[in-house]
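Page 42, continued from yesterday. The earlier attempt failed because a stray header line got pasted into the input along with the sequence. Redoing it now with the clean sequence only.
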Amino acid sequence: MRGANAVLGTAGLAAFLALGEAVPRLGLVKEAYFPPTSRVADALGAELADSAFWTALGDTLTGWALGLAIAVGAGIVAGVLISVVPHLREATASTIEFLRPIPSVALIPLAVLLYGTELRSVLLLVVYAAFWQVLIQVLYGIQDVDPVAEETARSYGLGTWARIRHVLWPTALPYVMTGVRLAAAVALILAITAELVIGAPGLGARIAVAKTSQAVPEMYALIVVTGVLGLLINVGVRTVERHALAWHQSVRGEVAV
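This time it went through. Structure tokens are written below.
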């Protein structure tokens, strides 16, 4: 089954690349705006041979990784505290519902005023966007804890931290991993967006330079790189998720009776 899916996926990708080559060659769109696949591939090869490209890639990955780590840590800690401290969830519900829908891109002017084009501007936007993905999933996960298991733990005299470790965390972990997977994708989107708009060092800034200098094939090549980067990040996070949830029925393929 996996082999057939791989063959179909490869065939679909080949057809897409062939279409990208044929459409501008046939004059359906202008090559100046949509270069053929072969020209984009040549530009990609040139980018890979340029040390400045790898520096920009490192800058993007640094902003993504640091922002994601901060957001995940803060989201987990805040979610657990809000859930276990009496009445704290009710007290913070309206604040969370007010702040969560605010788009991170709306904070770009604030980030520029505070930090200019430094890495901290990227981190501000990345952390803000990714934090909510984790926090909401943690809240849902802890809310899903079986009240019978919770009361049993209390009756056996387990303290707060023991209940978090043995009751709350195993139930919330699948939700947490979902939040991390969503946050990883959102963090990459915001990192590149911040670089593109603010001009912070990274792939986004390199795309902006290629656009303004009319280097269209190079621009498309960099866009392809961001797509591949997103794919690799998603595969990596899913791999971590499978290892972290190896005991869970969703990974083991078991059917709850």
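Notes: The CA atoms of residues 75 and 135 lie 4 Å apart.
Reminder to self: strip header lines before submitting.
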